[in-house]
């Protein structure tokens, strides 16, 4: 074979092999890329699967132990706006009529309460309450007075199972906060006046208080100690209650309150204090510190009250209740009330109350009768127009009363 032809054939073969090899490499390169991506995707999927298994095991652990890791950070906000106004339906109105209506608890006012409650642990509750009010005070100018939004109450309530509970209220306590027969809530059913709120002892402010309650079967017993007036004088009070739940949907409560004498603190009145300048000699001044005469340790005698409260559930919404209270200072004077209400969540509800003060079997010095219709405008707003008839000595007063409650 001619060497020239042989060299040309070798060059052709080399060129053909080069071209065929490049085509094969170009075809093989995308396949390698796809295989590599597949391996990486599989590795990522396995990692995601492992993370999912860890999350599922964590959730199953909390579900099995019934422990919420976020428990304790749940804060609830509740509020109430309470409006009350009255118009006397009389031609001749004098100061005696207004005094009688005022003693009956009918005063034009707007009260607002806002409460923050935080769950601590499983059953404990910590809360703060703010309050503002606006009232019309009868004076020469007819001005409206009110208080700005202020911190009115601080409380902590703890529960140890279903049989024991304790409540601590450093300030702003009322004895109704310690009433174990009713719920510690803003959304209490309110009538036109204070007759539906229970005995008057429950409305008294007790300053700071601490109380415990024990539940056994159908009996609840509670005991609380309070101190009020932390300034120049203070007073210790003891509040006790026994509640018996009868099988016929009847709840009987016996309440007792003993207020100790006011204890005056030993104060020192300080005069001008002389401070020596430029000299280390002792300065004597008769006005430097003046010790006031020691006041007596007690400024009055102790007093107290005893009350009996009865509540009955006629059905899911209808309630019948009554109470009577006797004061230690004058056992012959009794305060009493009977309430009947229908707190239905439908459009209409109603309520009626009668109560007063009696001294002896024939002396009805003060009593009042009230009735109202409750109009539910949604689940959180209600209007209660009604009438109140008040007898205060020789004064007879008929009033048209409107009460409105808004909860949020």
Order of helices and strands: HEHEEEEEEEEEEEEEEEEEE
Q: Which CATH C-level class of the domain at 82-95 and 164-263 and 296-407 is it?
A: Mainly Beta
Question: What is the CA-atom radius of gyration, in angstroms?
Answer: 39 Å
Describe the sheet with the most strands.
16 strands, antiparallel, barrel
Name the CATH homologous superfamily of the domain at 82-95 and 164-263 and 296-407. Porin
Can you give the mean pLDDT? Answer: 77
The N- and C-terminal alpha carbons lie at a distance of 109 Å
Give the DSSP E fraction (strand runs of 2 or more residues).
over 45%
Strand order of the biggest β-sheet: 1-2-3-4-5-6-7-8-9-13-14-15-16-17-18-19
Q: Quick one: overall form? A: elongated
Which structural class matches the secondary elements?
alpha+beta
In the predicted model, the low-confidence regions spanning at least 5 consecutive residues are 21-28, 67-72, 137-143, 267-299
What would the CATH topology of the domain at 82-95 and 164-263 and 296-407 be?
A: Porin
Task: Count every beta strand, where a strand is a DSSP E run of 2 or more residues.
Answer: 19
Number of helices: 2
């Amino acid at each position: 074979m001619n060497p020239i032809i042989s060299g040309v054939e070798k060059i052709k073969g080399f060129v053909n092999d080069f071209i065929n090899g490049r085509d094969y490499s170009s075809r093989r390169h995308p396949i390698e890329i796809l295989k590599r991506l597949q391996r990486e995707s599989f590795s990522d999927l396995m990692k995601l699967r492992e993370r999912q298994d860890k999350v599922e095991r964590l959730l199953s652990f909390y579900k099995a132990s019934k422990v919420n890791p976020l428990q304790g950070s749940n804060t609830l906000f509740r509020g109430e706006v309470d409006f009350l106004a009255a118009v006397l339906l009389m031609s001749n109105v004098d100061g005696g009529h207004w005094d009688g209506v005022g003693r009956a608890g009918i005063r034009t006012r707007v009260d607002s309460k806002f409460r923050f409650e935080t769950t601590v642990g499983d059953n404990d509750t910590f809360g703060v309450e703010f309050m503002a009010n606006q009232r019309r005070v009868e004076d020469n100018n007819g001005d409206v007075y009110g208080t700005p939004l202020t911190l009115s109450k601080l409380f902590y309530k703890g529960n140890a199972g279903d049989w024991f509970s304790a409540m601590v209220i450093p300030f702003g306590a009322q004895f109704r906060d310690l009433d174990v027969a009713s719920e510690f809530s803003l959304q209490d059913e309110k009538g036109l006046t204070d007759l539906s709120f229970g005995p008057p002892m429950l409305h008294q402010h007790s300053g700071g208080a601490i109380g415990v309650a024990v539940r056994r079967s159908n009996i609840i017993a509670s005991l609380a100690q309070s101190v009020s007036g932390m300034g120049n004088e203070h007073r210790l009070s003891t509040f006790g209650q026994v509640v018996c739940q009868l099988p016929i949907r009847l709840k009987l409560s016996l309440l007792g309150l003993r207020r100790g004498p006011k204890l005056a603190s030993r104060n020192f009145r300080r005069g001008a204090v002389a401070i020596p300048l430029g000299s280390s000699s002792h300065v004597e001044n008769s006005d430097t510190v003046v010790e006031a005469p020691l006041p007596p340790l007690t400024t009055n005698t102790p007093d107290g009250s005893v009350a009996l409260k009865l509540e009955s559930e006629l059905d899911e919404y209808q309630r019948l209740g009554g109470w009577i209270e006797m004061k230690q200072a004058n056992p012959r004077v009794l305060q009493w009330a009977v309430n009947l209400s229908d707190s239905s969540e439908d459009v209409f509800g109603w309520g009626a109350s009668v109560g007063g003060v009696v001294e002896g079997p024939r002396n009805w010095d003060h009593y009042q009768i009230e009735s109202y219709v409750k109009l539910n405008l949604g689940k959180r707003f209600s209007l209660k127009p009604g009438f109140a008839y008040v007898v205060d000595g020789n004064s007879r007063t008929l009033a048209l009363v409107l009460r409105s409650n808004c909860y949020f």
